Amino acid sequence: MDYPRFTKDMRKTHTILIPSMLDIHMQLFENVLNISGYHVEVLHNEGPSVVEEGLKYVHNDTCYPALLVIGQFIDALNNRKDTHNVVLLITQTGGGCRASNYIHLLRKALIKAGYEYVPVVSLNASNLEKDSGLTLTYPLIKKVAAAMTYGDMLMYLRNKARSYEVKKGSTKELTTRIVHELSDQIAKNKGLSFHAIKRNLNYIAKEFDKLDLDLSHKKPQVGIVGEIYIKYASLGNNSLEDFLVSQNAEAMVPGLYGFIFYCLYNQIYDYNIYGSGLIKKYVAKFIIKYLERRENLMIKAIQKTKFTPMKYFKETKELSEGVLSHGTKMGEGWLLTAEMMELVEIGYGNIVCAQPFGCLPNHICGKGVMKKIKEIHPNANIVAIDYDPSATRVNQENRIKLMLAIAREEIKPDEKAKI
Ligand code: SF4
């Protein structure tokens, strides 16, 4: 097909725009790509114009995350002086879900909006869009994996601490400081080896352990699950984490490691169930081992603090067995179920399942398994919240408040917080 390509020469002249999703991770990924020879900028434009642009150029039957990502790109282009030196980066999962096709929707939208000359680059591990100037080399994957490890660790501890901080804003201050320190290291090509990661993770754990927290009263502990974009992006979920904290609750979002492990295990299941992709299976096994060593460092570092660590993904995966088949792998698939089970087991019995409009996998693997999860964990307090352009924030927040009211009834007056 004839569309503008991102060539290797453009690395020096063009800025790659990335849609926002996870605030901490994105800052680190931005640095990793910048030291790897690219000019990268994460988008932060929000507001009604993003949804308006999305609605203008994407069919309203399409998944809500596609509408937001494309709307954010077009809105950013509309507000840029020079649009001839930018490239748009979009991820493709490579599975059967519509996320693999967002790139085509984006190209179509760019033509309609008059930006047909803007190249789109795909970030994927499935060998899609092979002519792209952005190649996932081993050194780049190693750097991204290090950034992801730091991102998950910081996000986890920030979420654990922020609702109990004695000095308002101290958790945010600490997180920002550490992100800057890590970014400085990454800019110097440091902090990326296994030993450097171990040292940094222990340092992060120690710094968070020093935070002054008031644990005298338990707060409702709420886990957030759902389609990856709506789960993580404040633009997609109307700043759900901040809302929960403002309601005197503790909010927890499972890390990005889970999604990557899920995608890798799916390569193994593809071979086991359908008999295809033997090489992919072995590559997946190798990467799983690689990531498990780093996951272990994270959990070991947290174990030395007052915080309870997350589960090893292997355990999380096992929790979904008997609830949903591991052959269910469209969208978030069995991961969504596994994350709900994990959250309940580590104390987050109250769950918001964030469901984007147009997402069939989310409705099946989220809403569809709630009954079964409640049979296993009768105290699980799960609410499914729909996110779409016409859903009002007030309506979403009122339903969450109702869930929080039920959660508060379960807390004894003198019960202390366990983090
Ligand atoms: S997971 Fe849901 S929202 Fe995401 S691409 Fe698939 S169908 Fe769309």
Polypeptide structure, described:
The protein is of the alpha/beta class and 419 residues long. Among the domains are: 126 residues, 3-Layer(aba) Sandwich (Rossmann fold); 148 residues, Rossmann fold (3-Layer(aba) Sandwich), CATH 3.40.50.11900. The chain has 18 helices and 8 strands. A 4-stranded parallel beta sheet has the order 2-1-3-4. A 4-stranded parallel beta sheet has the order 6-5-7-8, sandwiched between helices. Helix 2 runs antiparallel to helix 6. The relative contact order is 0.12. The model has no long low-confidence stretch (mean pLDDT 92).
Approximate helicity band? 40-55%
Report mean pLDDT, rounded to a whole number.
92
- Helix and strand sequence: HEHEHHEHEHHHEHHHEHHHHEHHEH
The tally of strands reads: 8
Instruction: Enter the CATH topology name of the domain at 218-255 and 310-419.
Output: Rossmann fold
Keywords:
4-stranded parallel sheet; Rossmann fold; 419 residues; binds iron/sulfur cluster; alpha/beta; globular
